[in-house]
Amino acid sequence: MPKFFATASLGIEPALALELERIGATGIEPARGGAHFEGDLALMYRANLWLRTATRVLMPIREFSATGAEMLYSQVRRLHWEDYLDPERTLAVECTIAGVRRIPNRRALEERRPTRDRPMRPEMRPEMRPDQSQKQGLHHSHYVALKVKDAIVDRLREKYGHRP
Fold it and tell me: Which pLDDT belongs to residue 75?
């Protein structure tokens, strides 16, 4: 059964889950900024038509993990984009980075540890340092979007001899 993701504004994911349940979706899993769900294509069309809290209904065509920019490029390039895109048309790629884990910088935590004489104020948040995925360059949405677009364009150029 196909899986989908309905996007929504932060904070209204529970309302979205209720709407999905009402239109017959199964396997509903609320997530930050939306909800995953399962159903047939007819359900996807109903979701696009009747959901009031969702802003988009997305249908993933492939899922994979990428620990770096080159792995992302090669995984995206493997997809048969010619099945989805016309090389005579233009192409735009949007990217949202979600779920990037950050690890507190230990020294920053020590320096800002509250004491009786110096309580932690709200504006004194511990600095964060990026985890390994961010060191690999997958933390900047514009960069990731460019790598994805490069992979798609290169695949179509290889297949048709010119870029979209």
Answer: 96
